[in-house]
Amino acid sequence: MKKVLTAGLLAACVLLAQPKIKSKKEAEAWQAIMSAQGPDAQIAAVEGLLTMFADTELKPYALQIAMEAAQQKNDTEKAVIYAERSLEADPKSYSAMLTIARITAAGTKEFDFDKEEKLKKVDKLANDAIEVLKTAPKPNPQLPDEQWAGVKKDLTSQAYEALGIGAMVRKKYDDAITHFKGAIDNAAGPEGSQTPKVRMAMAMNFAGKYDDALAVLNPLLEDQKLDPAIRKFAAQEKVKASMAKMKK
């Protein structure tokens, strides 16, 4: 899973926003978060700050750090909890929106009793993130415009991918293809487009568009730099498309 913001960028966000730190102890608690080594230590430091200073203006930034730390541990349940708390503290937190949307989309199954409720949340948060990112300010004023534009494109790509996964669960394959194409078009570089391409090919296979799937997969599999795990996934989809064509 991609990281949305590093602790360093979050620290820059704090400097840019200039939240008021009300005491030396509060400053020390924030510094403890910044100097914590490893996700468990970061989460503990965040909880320490929020326990001592429940109304701290640093709350949105601290919660995002805890959210990222939980993702590093692959603790998706805790990551969503921190993301939801982060979104309460900052309703325009696109990183929290994307975290909830991606994790919820990936964890929703066809026969979940609350499938549609979950997927509506995915749709809302992913689309909200896309809108917020259009005008989102740089988290660090020293970040070059071109680099920030690339970051926003990649984050937008992640939002479209979440929408595509949700459409797959609904078995709306044409919608999924459209969303995955949005993810591909917005990826800032070739590496970011690899997974959406395979997902789009999978949707094409389900939709019976086997030639379209092969047109996506063949050039992807020719890429010598293709991630091995993605290559395996792509090869499986190519076999499915080829065999389905033979049976037609």
Structural class: mainly alpha
Order of helices and strands: HHHHHHHHHHHH
List how many beta strands DSSP finds. Answer: 0
- End-to-end Cα distance, whole Å, is 37 Å
Task: Please provide a written account of the structure.
Helix 8 runs parallel beside helix 10 (190-206), helix 9 (173-186) packs antiparallel against helix 10 and helix 10 runs antiparallel to helix 11 (210-221). The protein has 12 helices and no strands. It is mostly helical and 248 residues long.
Condensed summary:
By secondary structure, the chain is mainly α. The chain has helices spanning 7-17, 24-35, 39-52, 59-72, 76-89, 94-107, 115-134, 145-169, 173-186, 190-206, 210-221, 228-247.
Comma- or semicolon-separated keywords:
12 helices, elongated, 0% strand, 248 residues, mainly alpha
Helix-strand blueprint:
Layout: H1 7-17, H2 24-35, H3 39-52, H4 59-72, H5 76-89, H6 94-107, H7 115-134, H8 145-169, H9 173-186, H10 190-206, H11 210-221, H12 228-247
